[in-house]
Write a structure and sequence with these properties.
Length: about 300
């Protein structure tokens, strides 16, 4: 009897020393963090092909690759090309590939895009090299090189936030011995690989730049009971309890040299999210005021 009691006390002491008697802090339920970046909604406009290859197809291919790479990053949601076509007249781009500020602002607001990306494929070429001994041996290498320019445009102000250029290269080789082997002819996958290499570099730069920019949405409506409805819901990571500042739309000023500057909007109020739906959210007005088309901005 005394032996069992001694063993029981000993086990109890060991368990308490090891923390068995009380749950460790790591096992306690953790409250969901309300901080962190929300997903930003981006729109990609079809790029302009300024090269002599592909009969204009390289521009469309580049924008498709960029849209896919941004989507796969998991940091953004994308507005479809068709969604942009409904609100944007691509003829306004001309040959420069740059959206003017007023058109970008209008398009950004209508599709709810935090940023719009457009640009062009400015260079593309194929370089051939190799050796050949007729009837005995031959090698051929095809090297593709593509240069892509982009402009990252603020969907709220229409101001260009970043302009970048990236270059991509890829190659394929073939060999023949005693007339047996591949021909090493050009195919469009070579162009796609060169474009993808350039665009993957641009995705890194886009992601880095947008990480510096606070998430923004728009006030859709203010009801009589002071309920506020805003753009952005579960699709962008909005959660109950999040608080946002409400500001007026930034004011644009154009300098004599033609450069456009955006002045910060005026602080109007503050809201707290009370209900989250698929792509919109309900909020309560904590202080100040909020009206339709005002800007909703995440704290940094």
């Amino acid at each position: 009897m005394m032996t069992r009691l001694f063993h029981g006390l000993l086990l109890t002491g060991v368990c308490l020393a090891a923390g068995c008697g009380t749950p460790s802090s790591s096992r306690l339920p953790q409250m969901e963090s309300l901080s962190g970046d929300l997903k930003k909604r981006l729109a990609v406009v079809d790029f302009i092909d300024k090269t002599d290859y592909g009969k204009g197809r390289l521009g469309i291919a580049a924008s498709d690759i960029l849209e896919g790479e941004l989507q796969r990053s998991g940091k953004f949601t994308m507005v479809s090309h068709s969604g942009m076509d409904e609100v944007l007249n691509l003829q306004t781009l001309g040959q420069s590939g740059i959206l003017d500020a007023s058109t970008a602002m209008q398009a950004g607001r209508m599709v709810g895009a935090n940023a719009i990306i457009n640009g062009s494929v400015t260079e593309f070429g194929i370089k051939k090299s190799g050796i050949s001994v007729p009837g005995i041996i031959g090698t051929k290498t095809l090297k593709a090189r593509a240069v892509v320019d982009i402009h990252l445009i603020d969907g709220t102000t229409g101001v260009i936030m970043m302009s970048e250029t990236a270059e991509g290269e890829t190659e394929t080789s073939s060999a023949k011995f005693l007339n047996i082997g591949g021909e090493g002819t050009y195919d469009e996958t070579l162009a796609g690989k060169a474009l993808r290499e350039a665009i993957q570099q641009l995705v890194v730069k886009i992601t880095s730049k947008l990480a510096e920019v606070p998430w923004e949405g728009f006030v859709l409506s203010r009801e009589q009971d002071d309920t506020i409805w805003i753009t952005g819901g579960a699709d962008l990571g909005v959660r109950r309890g999040m608080k946002f500042d409400v500001t007026s739309t930034p004011k644009q000023i154009t300098a004599p040299n033609g450069k456009t500057y955006s002045l910060p909007g005026e602080m109007l109020g503050r809201i707290e999210i009370t209900e989250v739906l698929a792509d919109i959210s309900r909020a309560a007005l904590l202080q100040g005021q909020a009206a339709k088309n005002d800007i909703v901005r995440q704290d940094r």
